[in-house]
Each structure stands twice: as C-alpha cells, then as structure tokens.
Write a structure and sequence with these properties.
383 residues, Chloramphenicol Acetyltransferase, 2 domains, seven-stranded mixed sheet, four-stranded antiparallel sheet, alpha+beta, OB fold (Dihydrolipoamide Acetyltransferase, E2P)
C-alpha cells in the first residue's frame, strides 16, 4: 500500500515530512504513529493506514511535497484493517520521548490538566526507571547544568514559532497601547456562577471568554482592527475569526481559531476556547483549526503578569493581551467626592500595525473594549 501526503486542511496544498517514526523493515500497525507532517502553523502526527511492514521510504525527513505525493510503501500483512483505537491526548514531544524509550503511556502518571502527560512527567519516569544518566543530554532539564553551557536544539514547533515572530516584526510597524480596566461586573458574574458552571461543564469559568466577547462587540464599531494588509490595501474581514494563543508546555505557541466568534455569547465562547485548548495541548489540531484568523487574543494572566507586549500574528493587524485580574486601589468619584476603593482590575494591551491604523483609532478601540468590560450586563449573556 502507498502512503501519501494527506490533505491536512481545505487551504493546505503541501506539507513537510518532519519525522519518520519507523525505519525501513519495521513492522507497523494500522493507526499507530508513522510520521509527522509540518505546515506553516501546525505539526500533525499521521497514523499508518494499514498494518504490515514498512518496505520503502520515498521522501526523507525535511522534504516538502504536495498533497497526494507518495511518501512510503507498506507491505500489508492483513488487508482487513483493525478497528481504530482512541487517540491518546499526548503532544508530539511527549509521543516522541515515549517511543524513543519504549515506554507505554499508561505507565506514566500525568501532572498536567486533566491528568495529561507532560514532557517533564516522561523525563521523571525515565530517571526513576533507568537513572538520570539515561536521559538524553538535551532533555536533562532538571539535571545539574554542565560547567560551561548546555545546548538545547530548537524542536520544529520552537522553530516555527521563532520564524513566525521574527517575520512579523520585520513585516509590521509594531506600536503598543494599554488601558487599565475595572473587572468588577465580570468578577461578580463569575463568582455567582462558578460552582454551577464547574458542575455542568467540568471546567472553571475564567474571565477570558468575557474579554473575547467584549473584543468581538467592539470590533463591530472599529472594523479596521479586524483586517490584514495586502500590498497597499487594507482588507477588512466580514467575520471575526478569533485566534486564541495557546502555550504548549513551554515548547512553543499555536493560535487555533474560533470561526465567526462575534455570533457567540460568553458560554459558547468559553466552550469553544476550552475545546481548542484541549485539542492544541493534545496534539490533535488540524490545519483548518489554525487557518483564517483575523484577530488574536493572548492570555498570560494565569502567570500573574501585569502587562504583555504581544507580537502581531501575521497577516493580522492587531493582537490583544489580557493579563492578570488583581484587586488594586483605584479612585472612584461619587458626585463631588473621590474615594479610594479596592477593585479587581486588569491591563488590556494591544499591539497594532501602524501601517494599517493610527494611534487614535487603536486607542478609541481599546476604550470601547474597556467600556464594554466595565458596563455590560454580563449576567444576561447566560440567559
């Protein structure tokens, strides 16, 4: 049977073979990982289409070919394909470490969200089973560093992230603005609904989907932030396809997309964000999941950051960072009297492409986002 370059998304026409999991002559089983394919924004693990023996590899690692190109040949042992198995939610890095050391994922205790196995979990298991000396030099993140330096090569995801960020800085005229916003109305709704939401959905109700909703509503009044630059033209997008920046165990970033996000109330956005994050961290994103974004929202607040200066996600013209919500002393005015009160506030910061919009437009957009966060009836979103 021929193994061919799969169609990874509607807009994807080619892919790069980044890693072969088997060598010529190795036995393969249907649905087990056979090779990895990288596109411009995501790396995908591809399963074997049939059981048998890998007789020939036609495309080496690092080569880019079109969709449908022959990559390898499997001599089938049995043409009857076994029933598919549930795919473990493991990142490509974790899968590679497990395969290299012959470890079954069921033997490793996961410390990530929902019991997800992280790279650190696998390294700890290897060290416990075989001793610290068994860990490859580049993976010894917890071991004492050498006297001079330690070299950790970039993996493909790190390379893709680096290339994308450098290209963005070289392409866009980055400018930055930030505002401090009162989150009292959002925090009141979160507190009132926290327990019921956790019981019903199995996850926490964070402030992120509220900010996403405020963004989408503000974009309706300031459509030029939901755009891209082509030559000397600004292309306005009719739909808000909101990209959410997701960290992958500190190995790199991806930005999966919620299509037509402006049509969704807060609960729908919360579920969409939850599902995309789970897919991203489980290595299950497809090319279509990261395609077509028109505006990006980045959230570093879980780490307690004050404000972040984000890099624009090309070819978009703006990106918003949402940092930690903390109680701070602020001045409020009641009639003619000023009072100092404690309020939950957070910084919303936007990097924008000065080729596309000016500072006044960006500032007005940020002010509108702040007005929505502070003044909207957020409880009505759950009606």
């Amino acid at each position: 049977m021929d193994v061919v370059m799969p169609q990874l998304g509607e807009t994807v026409t080619e892919g790069t073979v980044t890693a072969w999991r088997k060598r010529v002559g190795d036995a393969v089983k249907a649905d087990e990982p056979l090779f990895d394919v990288g596109t411009a924004k995501v790396e995908t693990e591809i399963p074997a289409p049939a059981s048998g023996t890998l007789r020939e590899i036609l495309v080496p690692e690092g080569e880019t070919v079109v969709v449908g190109a022959r990559l390898a040949v499997i001599e089938e042992a049995d043409r009857k394909r076994p029933a598919g198995r549930a795919k473990a939610k493991l990142s490509p890095v974790v899968r590679r470490l497990l395969a290299e050391h012959g470890i079954d994922a069921g033997a490793v205790t996961g410390s990530g969200d929902g019991g997800r196995i992280t790279r650190r979990d696998v390294l700890a298991h290897i060290a416990q089973r075989e001793g610290p000396g068994s860990i490859p030099r580049g993976d010894q993140t917890d071991a004492a560093p050498p006297t001079d330096r330690e070299v950790i090569p970039f993996n493909r995801l790190r390379k893709m992230t680096a290339e994308h960020m450098v290209r963005s800085k070289a392409t866009s005229a980055h400018s930055f603005q930030a505002i401090d916003v009162d989150f009292r109305r959002i925090e009141d709704v979160r507190a009132a609904r926290r327990e019921a939401w956790a019981r019903q959905e199995g996850t926490s109700l964070t402030a992120l989907p509220f900010v996403a909703r405020a963004l989408c509503l503000a974009i309706a009044d300031f459509p030029r932030v939901n755009a891209s630059v082509e030559a000397e033209n600004l292309i306005l997008h009719r739909h808000v396809n909101l990209a959410i920046a997701v960290d992958l165990d500190h190995e790199g970033l991806v930005a999966p997309v919620i299509s037509d996000a402006a049509t969704m109330p807060v609960p729908a956005l919360a579920r969409a964000i939850r599902d995309l994050v789970a897919k991203a961290r489980g290595g299950a994103l497809g090319a279509d999941d990261v395609a077509g974004g028109t505006y990006t929202l980045s959230n570093a607040g879980a780490f307690g950051t004050l404000f972040t200066v984000p890099i624009i996600n090309q070819p978009q013209v703006a990106i918003l960072s949402f940092d930690a919500v903390r109680k701070r002393a602020i001045v409020v005015t009641d009639g003619d009297e000023d009072r100092i009160v404690a309020r939950p506030t957070a910084v919303l910061a936007q990097s924008f492409d000065h080729r596309a919009i000016d500072g006044a437009y960006s500032a007005a957009f940020l002010a509108r986002v702040g007005e929505i966060v502070e003044g909207r009836d957020w409880d009505a979103e759950f009606a």
